[in-house]
Design a protein that fits this description.
- Two copies of one chain form a homodimer.
- The first copy, chain A, has one domain: 4-Layer Sandwich (Nitrilase/N-carbamoyl-D-aminoacid amidohydrolase), CATH 3.60.110.
- Chain A has nine helices and 16 strands.
- In chain A, strand 7 and strand 8 form a beta hairpin.
- In chain A, helix 4 runs parallel beside helix 5.
- The longest helix of chain A is centred in the first third of the chain and has 21 residues.
- Chain A is globular and about 60 Å long.
- The interface between A and B is large, with 72 and 71 residues.
């Protein structure tokens, strides 16, 4: 099946679609961006989807609209996982470059790639040494170098989730932010690491030590909640309290692990915190030879964007590479806060105290 | 339209339903409870729906299954809102009693009613004095007296969300917990109060001062997150940290205010915190005469239950009174925590510190 949303949109009886969309997606019609003819041609030639949607905000008297286009890229790996590392990476670079060029031509100003986008997600093998050469420097590694050029060329902010190795040979699961001049702006290291089923990330790297940075880019205040961090409400909350207008959630997740959550968590976070969320998951099947066994993992894509008022785009394909562009007006963030008041009614002082009591094993003062 | 879930289940092409259900609801088939013939008759005679679903847990070696049935009741008011208060309340008592008796005959052991279940939800009128006689004592008021008898008779724990007035004539939005012996066990006062659109609850009562109590009943450890509190991730979190196995969310909410969130928030909370959530919303249209105007508010029901693994039941009707019974095995809570590890990876010490910094206006140490 390619997409649950596709079933809904295409196969529901016509007289039910409007009502269904309003309750399910939060609005009657998806507001679709008109894409260029060249974009359609390129996507057909290179076999990736391109979808575009827009989100409105109310016109204000004192602030100009702050409209910009976001880009989410989901892609499969290109070469088999036993090929030389440089070949594997170069093949991915080649594929992703084409998609970024299209994004640029469609006016995307902030773009985010999937978790550890430049390598297969080998964390299911439980092998470490064999794969260590995929780890790279956040500031000077090949992924950052490659994307910096594209960022500068297109005046685009790019978020590059990589496997980082630092000066001490410690690994981290890291999102690098490259600004619109092609400069390294900073990084965030994944705060919450899963040990779920065959994925045991704590065997590879440590929980992040960068807290909850928000990057004040030319276009928007952005943050990154990496993969499993989406299960943690406090992670989402802190990015919001630190000022994020958009939080990206680059992921690598398979259907057996909670595909039914995928449409829930980032959307809940957008609503609760009054910001846009952008969920990105890799696609395709990855095979690993492990002694006598072959391990296969299939990622279900389904990238999507949610606005602060809970309206979300349809999800991308479960199988196919693709670019999702979303035109957003950042003024929506404050407008939704004014409407709903979750920020005003948050009672953070109570929770700071309660959490401290829990941490000190004193129990909450019920 | 009666229910979005009904559209999905009944109108999707047959060959897509299984796949759709797995991704959307979290499992292929809804596991339906067989209800008694008398139940069906009663529901037809008195024009309310009864649905039953069950959730499994894995059999364990050292713990017996802890299986019990929960009951969620959604109902409309009975008499016009200008009628004498006692008449209005008695008519609701009469209707709800029938539903509770059916719940008892189906083996329900913990039952929860909707927010301020024994009155019209007049908070949209912005009038206060006129309605003040609906406020009642948590421990000795008519709602508690009425339900205590039923609780004792059926050895049923009942959660009774009321409009409370205390000795100081202060109002609170309160959930009373009555135990299986018919005794008042305690209460929780709504932590987060909306001032959204025409609903300005802060004009009526104060934010709760009872923190996040979990009630250790004969059948399960339960808590209540009242209505607008569902938008606050920290509210859900604290009930979980304090040990809740089931959190009820009694509500009174209209379609114009985020019906598209309704299926998201309580479900997200169940996943994030490893407990069952039970969402209950009133139904029907309520009319209020306000000077020369008539104000109407229509509630969309749609009550549902979510398991800690994110599987949820279909939602009840958007229009009709009803009882939703769910058979749960509380062992699922720990099993899901063992599988997903969100509790183990929560890093609460980091967040206690970050929140304290925010509260003290020091900013998070990014």
């Amino acid at each position: 099946m390619d997409s649950v949303d596709e079933i809904l949109i295409k196969k529901l009886p016509k007289n039910e679609v409007d009502k269904f969309n309003r309750i399910f997606f939060g609005r009657k019609d998806h507001s679709t961006l008109r894409l260029k003819d060249e974009t359609k041609k390129a996507s057909e030639n290179d076999n990736f989807d391109v979808f575009g949607y827009s989100f409105d905000a109310t016109k204000e008297q004192l602030r100009q609209p702050r409209v910009l286009r976001l880009g989410l890229v989901q892609h499969s790996i290109v070469l088999p996982t036993h090929k030389p590392i440089t070949e594997q990476r170069t093949a991915i670079f080649h594929k992703v470059k084409k998609i970024i060029e299209i994004a640029a031509s469609e006016g995307v100003k902030i773009l985010c790639l999937q978790e550890t986008w430049a390598m297969p997600f080998f964390l299911c093998t439980r092998e470490k040494e064999k794969w260590s050469q995929f780890a790279e420097s956040a500031q000077f590694g090949p992924s950052t170098m490659f994307l910096s050029e594209l960022a500068k060329k297109h005046e685009m902010v790019i978020i590059s989730p990589i496997l980082e190795i630092d000066e001490n040979a410690t690994w981290w699961n890291t999102a690098v932010v490259i600004n619109e001049k092609g400069h390294y702006l900073g990084k965030h290291r994944k705060n919450h690491l899963p040990s779920v089923g065959s994925f045991s990330e704590t065997a590879y790297y440590s929980p992040g030590n960068t807290n909850h940075p928000v990057f004040d880019t030319k276009y928007a205040k952005i943050a990154i909640n990496i993969c499993y961090g989406r299960h943690h409400a406090l992670n989402w909350l802190m990015f919001g309290l630190n000022g994020a207008e958009i939080v990206f959630n680059p992921a690598a997740t398979i259907s057996e692990f909670g595909e039914s959550f995928w449409g829930i968590e980032a959307r809940n976070a957008a609503i609760a915190n009054g910001y846009f969320t952008c969920s990105i998951n890799r696609v395709g099947t990855e095979e690993f030879n492990l002694n006598d066994k072959v391990i296969k993992r299939t990622y279900y894509g389904s990238s999507y964007v949610t606005a602060p008022n809970g309206i979300r785009t349809p999800m991308m394909s479960r199988q196919k590479d693709g670019l999702l562009t979303a035109e957003v007006d950042l003024n929506a963030c404050r407008q939704v806060k004014d409407q709903w008041g979750f920020n005003m009614t948050s009672r953070l002082d109570m929770y700071a105290e309660s959490l401290q009591n829990i941490v000190e094993n004193k129990g909450d003062n019920q």
